[in-house]
Amino acid sequence: MLKIRPAEKKDAFAVATINVLGWKTAYRGLIPDSILDAIEVTEKRIKRTEETIATVEIYLVAENENGVVGFLVGGKTKNKDVPYPYEIYVFYVHPDCWRVGIGTALINAFKEKIKGRSFCVYMLDGNTKALNFYQKMGGIRQPEFDCDTEINHVMTHDIFLGFKGKDD
Length: 168
Hints:
There is one protein chain. Strands 1, 2, 3, 4, 5, 6, 7 and 8 form an eight-stranded mixed beta sheet that branches. The protein has five helices and eight strands. The N and C termini lie far apart (34 Å). It is α+β, with helices and mostly antiparallel strands. It has a single domain (3-163), classed as Gcn5-related N-acetyltransferase (GNAT) (Aminopeptidase). The protein has helices spanning 12-26, 33-38, 43-55, 102-113, 128-136, and strands spanning 3-6, 58-64, 67-76, 86-93, 119-124, 140-141, 147-151, 154-163.
């Protein structure tokens, strides 16, 4: 049975592992292999995850009988130029658990936390699985808010999706 709950410090290793696996799986072919192959679950990554769990506004984990299988981090929109009050900052589901409803459950729990208000997400251009998922969840592509990001000296393009809330 799936349970969505606030993240705790004890979840840091599982979250870091899902984050690394998510990158290596979702971004293969979009980011150079040398960057993806170098990403590992380290003590530094686990410590940074623990610190984020303690300080971020919304940090949810999805847990089933096997343990933590996904997570979502969000809060107030970081880019004040976009017309959405909330943003999903980081969102990954263990690749072995894709397409079984975990992502949907995390998004729905996030919507509850923000009381149905509108929100947005930036995602790596070319990640068609994520784009299809977000669009299925109601995300609307808004290219005027797309941006470029540097990851380990490699420029990537992030696309922007907005989600209408109950007040729109």
